[in-house]
Amino acid sequence: SQTIHQWPATLVQPVGSPLSLECTVEGTSNPNLYWYRQAAGRGLQLLFYSVGIGQISSEVPQNLSASRPQDRQFILSSKKLLLSDSGFYLCAWRQGVGSPLHFGNGTRLTVT
Amino acid sequence: SQQGEEDPQALSIQEGENATMNCSYKTSINNLQWYRQNSGRGLVHLILIRSNEREKHSGRLRVTLDTSKKSSSLLITASRAADTASYFCATDPGTYKYIFGTGTRLKVLA
């Protein structure tokens, strides 16, 4: 069966520090991969998605970036965090168009 | 970006009662999905209804879809305390991007 791992679960980082959140999927190949951010009590904002290795589509400019170095690995990065980057970050995958999304347990990021 | 909207934003009911939440959207869709999110956790897929379907059941869940009104409803029957969570609809316009609503916070009182 397929599983998705996302880490760390919580992270407290100072303003200006770098960020790296990692997500891996097991039990499937060539998944579509997604990074979402959720503000407290709000809906989901799509940040990035990828339909294949090395292919990244960005929905939100700003100081975040994403990479997909391997088929089932998706990384969210920042060179310098801002206070506004605080939030709950969710990685998700799906098998293809029309399939449901499967989410990781999320990373609670607090930028201080 | 466009967002669906759930209604109500929050709902509080007694255990054993039914809970109904609604979702409205703006674009044409291939399917609509409902997800549940427990506090501090990721979303879990509950049910998917295709655009050519009008009603779908899964256990205590019943979903309806009215494409002419661009709306959907999720009914949870005989609710339990464990159903306490936020519920989101997501529309699939047939691209790589799903559009999520803002969610309904359901609280089931024991």
What does this entry look like structurally?
The complex is a heterodimer of chains A (112) and B (110). Chain A starts with a strand and ends with a strand. In chain A, strands 2, 4, 5, 6, 9, 10 and 11 form a seven-stranded mixed β-sheet that branches. Chain A has a four-stranded antiparallel β-sheet with strand order 1-3-8-7, with no helix packed on it. The radius of gyration of chain A is 13 Å and the shape is globular. With 112 residues, chain A is mainly beta. In chain A, a hairpin with a 2-residue loop joins strand 7 and strand 8. Chain B is an all-beta fold and 110 residues long. In chain B, strands 2, 4, 5, 9, 10 and 11 form a six-stranded mixed β-sheet that branches. A five-stranded antiparallel β-sheet of chain B has the order 1-3-8-7-6, with no helix packed on it. The mean pLDDT of chain B is 93. At the A-B interface, strand 5, strand 9 and strand 10 of A face strand 4, strand 5 and strand 9 of B.
The number of helical elements of chain B comes to: 0
Query: Which runs of chain B of at least 5 residues are low in confidence (pLDDT < 50)?
Result: none
Radius of gyration of chain B, in Å, reads 13 Å
SSE string of chain B, helices as H and strands as E: EEEEEEEEEEE
CA(first)-CA(last) distance of chain B: 38 Å
Average pLDDT figure of chain A: 93
Q: Biggest β-sheet of chain A: count, sense, barrel?
A: 7 strands, mixed
Oligomerization: heterodimer
* Number of beta strands of chain A: 11
What are the secondary-structure elements of chain A, in order, as H or E? EEEEEEEEEEE
Using the alpha-carbon principal axes, give the shape of chain A: globular
Category from helices, strands and their pairing of chain B? mainly beta
User: In one word, what is the shape of chain B?
Assistant: globular
What is the distance, rounded to the nearest whole angstrom, between the alpha carbons of the first and last residues of chain A?
Answer: 38 Å
Mean pLDDT of chain B: 93
| Range of strand content of chain A | over 45%
Structural class by SSE content of chain A: mainly beta
